[in-house]
Amino acid sequence: MRMSELLLQIDQKKSRVVIQNGALDHIGAWVSSLDAPPVVLVCSDETVAGLYADRVLASLHGAGLVAAHLHTLPPGDGSKSLAELERIYGALGSLHLARDGLLLALGGGVVSDLTGFAAATWMRGVRYMTCPTTLESAVDACVGGKTAINHPAGKNLIGAFHHAERVVIDPDCLRTLPARDVSAGLAESVKHALIADPGFLDWHEAHRDDIRAGDPDVMAELIERNLRIKISVVESDEREHGKRAILNFGHTIGHAIEQCCAYALRHGEAIALGMLAALRLSQDEGMISAAELARVRELLESFDLPVALPANLHADAIADLTRGDKKVRGGERRWVVLDGLGHPRIVDGISDDQVRAAIGSLARAD
Ligand SMILES: NC(=O)c1ccc[n+]([C@@H]2O[C@H](COP(=O)([O-])OP(=O)(O)OC[C@H]3O[C@@H](n4cnc5c(N)ncnc54)[C@H](O)[C@@H]3O)[C@@H](O)[C@H]2O)c1
Ligand SMILES: [Zn+2]
């Protein structure tokens, strides 16, 4: 059976990542390898817990971790809230989870962002581990140390850097993931290829059918290649002072689209559209050709991602919202564009008119 291990290392901080089909049944062994935490709190959403929590708890208990408990939250981004954070603190308090305890996230990016933030702040930081169960979290959210909750003023506004010590990925979990969520995760995979590895873009095209069919070996390889890219970017710039910003390719306009449609689109769906608009900006700057843009559009479409803007969204309104993006520095928006596929560049000096036109250039859904 295929198994791969990756390591993210920044100073003394290490995240060990293991990707293995069936890994959930061995979670107890992975946790015990962290000098056996006396108390473990597994945090999951109700959907994921219903599917996988019994197996995870059985493995933990089987490895002698008898004080392993489950805490669940409602599924959805609404759970990245102060109220749910407080409920986790309540559970940690009742279990007397101390500095040597462990929080284990079992779920998608919502669960890991919230659980990671609870781990970063409880007793000024306790150990944290994550088992991503969505493609989005397996290819992106599970490494890199960003944890956050939302605030009425905006998404991910309250957060901390706190790396998972272990990331255990069981690609078999993707079998129960709705197709729409698989597609959303594939948008981030295409993003990683576009910003770092043109050969990986070819790979997506060559393995398109196996990816669409969810072939377990191909999905394990896809996850591994994504995480290698993300780890190398994060290792070069953990706190996003420079290069890490390339991971935001397609995200400035993508976030504005998410906000504009009141989160009716999945994050990855909005990012697919945001990437196409950012590619259009790149084309305007003479950095990529119309044929390259068409190639990416075709790939995204073949993964059932939207390539046309929903009819009720207005380019002007989306463009206005990009001004509220976190990547604004000193009033000047910085844009990640591609100078050839696989070669990102961070630029400023792109006018509002160009942004409006790039968004306006997206096809319209009927
Ligand atoms: N920290 C980071 O670096 C980072 C990176 C990317 C995204 N994120 C965050 O991640 C969140 C989005 O994550 P997501 O797309 O994983 O969403 P999610 O965690 O909400 O999961 C999507 C849905 O899938 C369900 N689900 C999860 N795993 C399943 C499985 N194996 N089978 C069946 N159903 C399953 C969940 O219950 C949920 O309803 C956003 O809040 C985003 O801000 C964080
Ligand atoms: Zn994203």
| Radius of gyration based on Cα positions | 20 Å
H/E topology pattern = EEHEHEHEHEHEEEHHHHHHHEHEEEEHE
Structural class designation: alpha/beta
End-to-end gap: 45 Å
SS field, number of helical segments: 14
Look at the structure and give the mean pLDDT: 95
| Sheet with most strands | 7 strands, mixed
Helix coverage percent:
40-55%
The amount of beta strand, in percent, is 15-25%
Low-confidence stretches: none
Number of strands: 15
Shape: globular
Identify the bound ligands. nicotinamide-adenine-dinucleotide, zinc ion
What spatial order of strands do you see in the largest sheet?
1-2-9-6-5-3-4
Fold and architecture overview:
With 366 residues, this protein is α/β, with parallel strands linked by helices. The protein has 14 helices and 15 strands. The strands form five sheets. A seven-stranded mixed sheet has the order 1-2-9-6-5-3-4, with helices on both faces. The protein has a two-stranded antiparallel sheet with strand order 7-8. Strands 10-15 form a two-stranded parallel ribbon. β3, α2 and β4 form a beta-alpha-beta unit. The radius of gyration is 20 Å and the shape is globular. It starts with a strand and ends with a strand. The site of nicotinamide-adenine-dinucleotide has 29 residues, from α2, α4, α5 and α6.
